[in-house]
């Protein structure tokens, strides 16, 4: 579902300037009570899932996930432009090395463009069924997912500078949809646009992406400690 980010080569100088907060995500550990509630379900689902999930497999197993992450770039500028909206399409930045302030502004512009397109499509997402007996488990898992989304949100402009385009589009989409689901859960009559299986798959894929980002950070650190690095 979420493709792994590309690994651009960084110069020693750029690697030396990179900070952990620029490219990493702090590890969020759920409290013991929430972890005890959701861990058995996550383990059971992980045992039944393959190591990787293709978009076609995801569509068969979880239609709501496919609706969230099935992108058609032409749709991004199919909606009439409203006042204050960014005129699209906005090209994704492609930065090798540490992004400059101008690169980050470009990344933020790109993220906002994708976000606007996703918001325009939210009304097309069908309502999903979450049985009452699963709702407690659902909310526990959703809190884990929301934690990941909240940590990633301020870093999206940075990720837009070096991640693969498909990956950053999917991250922005997940960010928008999960935040909308949070609003629905807080209402007096909760509705669901993500079902339990989709929430679990999102968690699993984001965790894999977090691992890839952490590995990128370790690679940067190795570059700065290698003999002869500047």
Automatic annotation (TrEMBL):
Disordered: annotated segments: 1-60, 79-101
Feature: compositional bias, Polar residues: 1-10
Ranges of compositional bias, category Low complexity: 33-51
Superkingdom assignment: Eukaryota
Protein name, per record: Uncharacterized protein
């Amino acid at each position: 579902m979420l493709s792994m980010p590309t690994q651009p080569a960084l110069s020693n100088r750029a690697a030396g300037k990179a900070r952990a907060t620029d490219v990493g995500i702090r590890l969020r550990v759920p409290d013991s009570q929430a972890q005890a509630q959701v861990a058995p379900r996550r383990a059971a689902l992980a045992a039944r899932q393959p190591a990787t999930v293709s978009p076609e497999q995801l569509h068969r197993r979880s239609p709501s996930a496919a609706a969230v992450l099935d992108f058609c770039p032409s749709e991004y500028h199919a909606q009439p432009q409203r006042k204050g909206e960014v005129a699209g399409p906005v090209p994704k930045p492609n930065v090798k090395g540490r992004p400059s302030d101008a690169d980050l502004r470009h990344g933020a512009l790109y993220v906002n463009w994708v976000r606007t397109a996703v918001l325009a499509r939210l009304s097309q997402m069908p309502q999903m069924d979450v049985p009452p007996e699963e709702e407690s488990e659902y909310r526990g898992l959703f809190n884990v997912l929301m934690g990941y989304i909240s940590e990633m949100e301020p870093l999206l402009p940075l990720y837009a500078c070096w991640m693969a385009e498909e990956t950053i589009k999917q991250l922005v989409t997940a960010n928008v949809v999960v935040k909308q689901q949070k609003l629905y859960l807080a209402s007096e009559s909760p509705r669901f646009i993500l079902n339990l299986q989709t929430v679990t798959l999102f968690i699993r894929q984001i965790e894999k992406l977090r691992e890839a980002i952490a590995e990128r950070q370790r690679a940067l650190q190795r570059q700065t400690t290698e003999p002869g690095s500047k």
